[in-house]
């Protein structure tokens, strides 16, 4: 079962993501803030990380930067899922190593498609 870390401070959104991806057989760990996210990233292995940008204790860009610096060879993809849509923020995310950026609100089928694509790309890279 593929493990996904979802970093989302909105409880309703976190439950929605868990429901959508859980139906497709993914195992999800939810972190509600930057502090919880860092703890999970240090203690567990994930096949994918999905993070919001506006979070308590550490924002999504800070988490992305920290994770990519500390785990450069793991190849774990990171998807940003955010309502922030200004071009500079999107580009900053990609510059820091994000593999995808999905804007809220999103279609559940698009989320699943992007998650599947990122996980397939990771698997193919390790063959």
Automatic annotation (TrEMBL):
Keywords: Phosphoprotein. It comes from the Bacteria. It holds the Pfam family Response_reg. Residues 3-119 form the Response regulatory domain. Gene3D superfamilies: 3.40.50.2300. GO terms for biological process: phosphorelay signal transduction system. Signal peptide: none annotated. The modification 4-aspartylphosphate is found at residue 52. It comes from Chitinophaga flava. The lineage of its organism: Bacteria, Pseudomonadati, Bacteroidota, Chitinophagia, Chitinophagales. Transmembrane segments: none annotated. InterPro entries: Bact_response_regulator, CheY-like_superfamily, Sig_transdc_resp-reg_receiver. This is Response regulator.
């Amino acid at each position: 079962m593929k493990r996904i870390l979802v970093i989302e401070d909105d409880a309703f959104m976190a439950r929605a993501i868990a429901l959508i991806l859980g139906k497709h057989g993914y195992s999800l760990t939810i972190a509600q803030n930057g502090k919880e996210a860092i703890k999970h990233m240090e203690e567990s292995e994930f096949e994918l990380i999905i993070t919001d940008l506006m979070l308590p204790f550490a924002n999504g860009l800070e988490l992305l930067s920290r994770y990519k610096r500390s785990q450069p060879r793991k190849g774990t993809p990171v998807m940003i899922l955010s309502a922030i849509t200004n071009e500079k923020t999107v580009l900053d995310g990609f510059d820091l190593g994000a593999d995808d950026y999905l804007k809220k609100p999103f279609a559940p089928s698009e989320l699943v498609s992007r998650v599947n694509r990122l996980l397939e790309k990771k698997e193919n890279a390790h063959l």
